[in-house]
Amino acid sequence: MTSTGVALVTGGNRGIGLAIAQRLREEGWSVVVGSRSGEAPDGLAAVTLDVSDPASIESAYAEIEEKNGPVALLVANAGITRDTLLMRMSDDDIDAVLQTNLGGSIRLARRAMKGMIRAKGGHIIFVGSVVWALGSGGQVNYAAAKAGLVGAARSLAREVGSRGISVNVVAPGFVETDMTAELDEGQRAAILSGIPLGRYAQPVEIADVVGFLARSTYITGAVIPVDGGLGMGH
Question: Hey, which CATH number is domain 6-224, 3.20.20.140, 3.40.50.720, 3.40.50.12780, 3.90.550.10?
Answer without folding.
Answer: 3.40.50.720
